[in-house]
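Supplementary Methods S3. Complex input for the magnesium ion-bound model.
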Amino acid sequence: MEKKQIAILGSTGSIGTQALEVINEHPDDFEVLVLTANSNADLLIQQALQFVPDTVVICDESKYQYVNEALSSKHIKVYAGQEALTQVVEHADIDIVLTALVGYAGLEPTLNAIEHGKSIALANKETLVVAGELVTTAARQKGVNIYPVDSEHSAIFQCMAGEWQNPIEKIYLTASGGPFRGKSRLELEQVTKQQALKHPNWSMGAKITIDSASMMNKGLEVIEAKWLFGLKNEQIDVIVHPQSIIHSIVQFQDGSMKAQMGLPDMKLPIQYAMTYPKRLSSSFPRFNFLDYPSLTFEKPDLATFRNLQLAFDALEKGGNMPCILNAANEVVVQAFLEDKMGFLQMSDVIEECMNAIAFIQKPQLEDYKKTDWESRQKALDLVNQQGSFTIFGK
Ligand code: NAD
Ligand code: MG
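Predicted complex, serialized as structure tokens:
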């Protein structure tokens, strides 16, 4: 069998490094063709020396020379900058592009990969949140498959195998509830970034970990699910399942429900996205029922975790509203990580951006770019206006 040639956009992150672990475990199945990173030059160099890809891209142009010199003896092509990130996916030999980079930055490389007929293993959910219609329409036109990496969407995808002719009645996306499940708004006023960064079940990059604490992650995933599986808004429900063992559920027309289960380990959905419809062996730990005598379920608390409600609102409104939500969220998460704002204020800023930025019903790529920029500027202004804000617990 020919080895699948993989391009990993964002190879130095949580998903990227786990993807390399999967590849390392299956050297007969995969080969690394492209690696990219934003600014972590040392890890990118280390990965490139180990996997010897054809090409690497470092987005931070100031690190180009450093990376280039470190890799010159291996004859690895080195490029730098955002433009190079978008173009590198065009490499003729790529079979799958794993989009493991974080945020809006994933949109243009993903669109270009689709344009060039590359299969997508999609971890970068923000791409589908921002421009789900544009991206899925382009994929359909080009006959390109988008394989979900997000564990909930992988679960739905695994439940759908062999069921493609059967309409979905409903899906339930499971949510762990994050580190602040059960807390009141009063308690949330006091929480620090250190607390928010401690997820009970998953170890992930900083942005998605904050999104999980605020439940924005689940909101983004609802929008992601709509586009991946072609669902109506009312067909998507969220259920809190604190143990993170059931990764999501599909309900069919006859009332039958299929769920996908396993220990929370992103290597499984990463691997499945790269091997579908095949399953490969894995060395990941196995689930033991007796370690989990009860699996429990709760209704999400939309009044406390307003970000999830805001995401439902953005989905309902459609057009560029999810793009506005996403851009404002990226800004406030960064500000929260820099101790510039409190946990609850994040929702206030996002909501104000959703009210302030011009609504566009049928946006094109240029509209998304403009909306993203405007929403970021508005969110930044609002964050800066909070000058008198004091961080509790510091
Ligand atoms: P991370 O922060 O750990 O890694 C992000 C990677 O993207 C790094 O390699 C970084 O160098 C690169 N990057 C960051 N900003 C960039 C930019 N502006 N331009 C180019 N490259 C950039 O993030 P992560 O946790 O691995 O998450 C990656 C994506 O996968 C996110 O969209 C996240 O929502 C999604 N996801 C992650 C997990 C998880 O377990 N970590 C689970 C499900 C979905
Ligand atoms: Mg997820």
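The CA atoms of residues 241 and 297 lie 5 Å apart. The radius of gyration is 21 Å.
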